[in-house]
Amino acid sequence: MTGRFRLSLLFVLLAAAPAGAEVRTSGIWGLSPCATVGGHEIDRLFFLILAVTGGVLVAVQAVWLYFLVKYRRREGVAAHYTLGNNRLELLWTAIPFLVFLGLFVVGDSLWLRLRTPPPEGTALDVEIVGEQYDWLIRYPGPDGILGRADDARITPLNKIGLDPADPHGRDDVRLYNEMVVPIGRPVHLHLRSRDVIHAFYVPEFRLYQDLVPGRTIGWVSFTADRLGTYSIACNQLCGSGHDAMQGTLRVVSVADYEKWMAEKVAASRTAAGGPDFP
């Protein structure tokens, strides 16, 4: 392997790595602190699978050691040939099947539950559009309704394709790489991409979702239950500036969120440049 090739491989690995997350204070072992209600359910499933597979590992190794000792080569003891035992073979085939089937049922039900959007009107709707190399984040304004957006309307002056005929979009709050949510309130994400495949990734939220050009991903939601500041990373290699595609997500109290939103609404009313991102 030449030095030039090794250096190129290093650059590729660094570019493909997640673009940052919350600073770890507990070492590299274990999961990062969980900050969402659904994330705790994912962690419980993770540890359940870890316990099951760990138990299987211990059991298999114990049986292997038992047979290794019991049937070791000994002087004067002839080898014994066996045709097997159909009942035992059926048993050790059926048990893993039932275990994996049970894990599938538990995992699939959790997946469906977490991918079911909250009832309309109960969640905070936030649109996130990935572009090389920023997160374009849009909140509904005082009317509480996000304005219509269509990829077909995207132009250099209309980055997310807002429909100028929709009055609901005129008071929307538009931000770069900054997201704030209130603790304890469901947040419903509307995820899009305006160029290549990006991935919205917040490890402490146990949240990862690819953003595909031409589609709106509307089944991702979460409820934060831990105050703090977290990083939004792009976890798909999306170009030469992939490592710089980072945003900030803050979980604050309801009062702090309302204060923050009031300031952003006031700023958006006085900002020039039309309804799109400046």
Task: Tell me what you see in this structure.
The protein has 278 residues and is α+β, with helices and mostly antiparallel strands. Helices cover 34% and strands 22% of the residues. It has helices at 3-16, 37-70, 86-114, 254-270; strands spanning 124-131, 134-139, 173-176, 178-182, 186-193, 198-202, 207-211, 217-223, 228-234, 246-252. The strands form two sheets. The protein has a five-stranded mixed sheet. Strands 4-10-9-6-7 form a five-stranded mixed sheet, covered by helices on one side. A hairpin with a 4-residue loop joins strand 6 (198-202) and strand 7 (207-211). Helix 2 runs antiparallel to helix 3 (86-114). It is elongated, with a radius of gyration of 26 Å. The two termini are 47 Å apart. The relative contact order is 0.17.
